[in-house]
Amino acid sequence: MKYVISGTNRPGSKTLMVAKHIQKMYAEAGETIGIIDLQEMTLHEVIGHYGDTAPEAMKQAVAKINQADGLIIVTPEYNGSFPGALKYFIDHWSYPDSFEFRPVCFVGIGWSFGALRPVEHLQGVFGYRNAFMYPERVFMMNGPKYITPEAIADENVVKLLKSQMTGFQKFSKALSAAGLAANERLAKK
Asked: What's the number of domains the chain is made of?
């Protein structure tokens, strides 16, 4: 199963709305994907603790990531990068299981540049940890203006998200069929 990560713990975030829209798009295309919502991690309770001391919700989320067929990371732009809550969550992941050879794609939500920098920063993290990054990224410029719980009211962005979804599905299947994706590589060990 693939998972879409809502990359902020801010209550009522547009990021979670987009994650839910992406989940619906995949369902309409015949694939069930899960959502990992950082609001459920109670990150404020675990500052300074890593590994076994993490809350159960975080341990369960990392276990899902370690078995994921692919990750779709949706990130807003906070101060020119991705949110600290997302970085802190990622810092709890296990290496190499969470990252290495795991298919991943990115969606950015921002104003003028559509969260270009946060996505590029995430690409640096995932590239460093040897993930397979799907190259078709989606940048939602002025996203907060047209994202609601009911819809993404920008037809071009919806087309971009659907194009990314279709390509990412093929990308993930191709890596899996070739025995290159994380789950197949771990099964061989």
From this structure: 1
| Paired sense of beta strands 2-6 and 70-76, if any | parallel
What tokens were used for 132? Answer: 């397979």
- The tens digit of pLDDT for each residue in 130-166 reads 999 999 999 999 999 999 999 999 999 999 999 999 9
**Three-state secondary structure string covering 74-139:** EEECECCECCHHHHHHHHCCCCCCCCCCCEEEEEEECCCCCCHHHHHHHHHHHHHCCCEECCCCEE
pLDDT tens-digit map of 47-87: 555 666 777 888 899 999 999 999 999 999 999 999 999 99
User: With contact defined as beta carbons under 8 Å apart, do 103 and 135 qualify?
Assistant: no
Domain holding 44, by residue range, is: 2-188
CATH number at residue 166: 3.40.50.360
